[in-house]
Amino acid sequence: MLRVLQRIVEAVNQAPDFELALQTMVRQVKEALHTDSCTVYLADHEQHQFALAATDGLEIRSDKPIHVPFGEGVISLAASREEPLNIANASEHPAFLRLEHVVEDRYKAMLAAPVIHRRRVLGVLAVQQEQARAFTRDEEAFVVTLAAQLAVVIAHAEAKGLLRTAKQSPWLQTIKGLPAAPGVAIGEAFVVKPPARLSEVTPKRSDMPEHEIRAFRAAVARTRQELLTISDSMKGQVAEETLAIFDVYHAMMDSASLGKEVEQTINDGWRAQTALKLVVEQLVNQFENLDDEYIRERASDVRDLGNRILAHLQNREARKFNPPKQCILVADEVTATMLAELPQAEIIGMVSLRGSGNSHAAIMARSMGIPAVLGVDDIELNEVSGETLIVDGYNGDVFVNPPLQVENEYRQLADEELALRQKVMQARDLPAETTDGVRVQLNLNVGLNTERDWLNDLNVHGVGLYRTEIPFMMRERLPTEDEQEELYSAVLEQFRGAPVVMRTLDVGGDKPLPYLPMDEENPFLGWRGIRMTLDHPEIFLVQIRAMLRASVGRNNLRILLPMITSAEEVDEAVRMIHQAYHEVAEELQCSVDEQLFEPQIGVMIEVPALIYQLHCVADKVDFFSVGTNDLTQYMLAVDRNNSRVASLYDAFHPAVLHALKQIIERCDELNKPVSVCGELAGEPGGALLLLAMGFRNFSMNSYNIDRIRWIIRHIAAADLEQVLQRALAARSPQEVKQHVIMALENAGLGGFVRAGG
Length: 757
Description:
The protein is an alpha/beta fold. Helices cover 44% and strands 16% of the residues.
């Protein structure tokens, strides 16, 4: 039976269009179960009825569509109960409905299974037989399993507008993605594909390794020059820190591991193209299995770089783009280099089938002020090329060929968005202070070493979170103390005079280092963060020593310990930090001008257990920092990277809000400063709730600084208490968001949570 099920699913997925897919399914299900009829009904929630979409066995005596009203018949009963109905003689069932123009009197047995996708009934799959009998449990399980498979097919068709009624316009259904850069854009879709694809390389052997290595090195050199040209073309068009994205590409090419492994694979008897494919795909897999979203998105950069080197290996000519004016860039995976290659004046929006808000393409889009929606998996590139798109970067919505009234509404919202953006920029030099005098410190979350003068340009207090993982991920060995010192020195010097919170190495378990293999059944709850580094003091001490050496004469280093669960972990980490401090002080014998200051030590609150242990560690540390991303994940027992349960991940969950309120209350009692460095602080509604709780130190990505500052300056902290109480009393994240949105609307700040304002 399993083999039959797989064959049917494969046939449905390979069908060239939706109607044929449904017809294929009903025919093959009828044959597989040796039944007399199989029918698919699709739910039309606007018209409150089910439409007969495909059948093999029912006799239809009309050219008009056949409908079953909601609430009537066995079909509606199965849908409302959300469970299969197995009826030996359906015609005698009290819910049985005789449909006009449908001949089914000869059928007795009926099995109806609802088709459900993400808790929403999309239709019903029904099989019927002349013989009066109950279907077996195996048959029932077979139909229920097929209904679950059919749900995905129908959901994709619904997103494409293929389920529309005669009154609806094509593509009127909103295509959902992830909002990656705020704003609204309307324009023609311009589809771009990579210059070459490693996935299309067929592995081949070679007995001329010297020739292949020369070809590989030449391709790397041409790629390096190409990236330099692209980077130079962007100067003056985007912020300087955005150009540092290209430094990551150069660092990957400079990485001994990439070139060395490719050449080693060539020496093992493979062609250069094959060797590049094997090495890059292995590195991509390593990145894609990470938990840290920012670092995981580096997989896109590695894949992009590999495709570019491959294009030069294949001697492809440089591409010349000719995009239409005011167009929307659409690609399977938009990359930073792809965006930079295109004429800036022509690209007004971006849609990517893959990626998240932490991808370099998203970072560049925000820097360029281009609305972006990523993770859109319900469209085909060839279907949207040349079509009119609306990109709503606030809600993650994409419309294809929208009705005129929808387009006109969004054009008005786009004008309002532009006016709002210009107003927000005007407040950059002003303090983040509420109308009733409550001052808030805004800090940066930094993941790249940049050269921009952030302190003056964005008017921030300092760095609330600096990730140190990338140098460890991009090598085939641990970075030396000198290599780490050089990197940390650049960051501390860049923010001289302002605090820089450096998080110690946060890898392990779900974020393995390529040279430190880890195999765990449940990595999300495993050997990671401080747990790993305490088990490897030789790694931890070297990193701390490098940070301390880099801080000589600057006195702006703060050290943050991740994934803390117990007081014992803090005791041991602090002991080793003190040990490293005394070692470095003795070695350097710092003069008065180059004094080595003992850094402040902080702990991340991201494991719920620590909330109840704050009093046990408060005397050992100087500050706390709340990582709302992981705290939410662990509070709700939801892997936010798992698409099946990602909808349950929501930092606005009332339980998470109660935990945050308890954290600030405990920190106040302990007289310990606390900041929030998770994504919630950069959300307009999240910032309001945190402000109402009593948090006064927020850290976020650069593109949120101006928006959050404006919101803080146009709201009274005293007015937020009622909003907070309603949020804490709410039953769901959706109810919380309704209260927050209402508060923003009442304050005239609705434009920050929707297009326009």
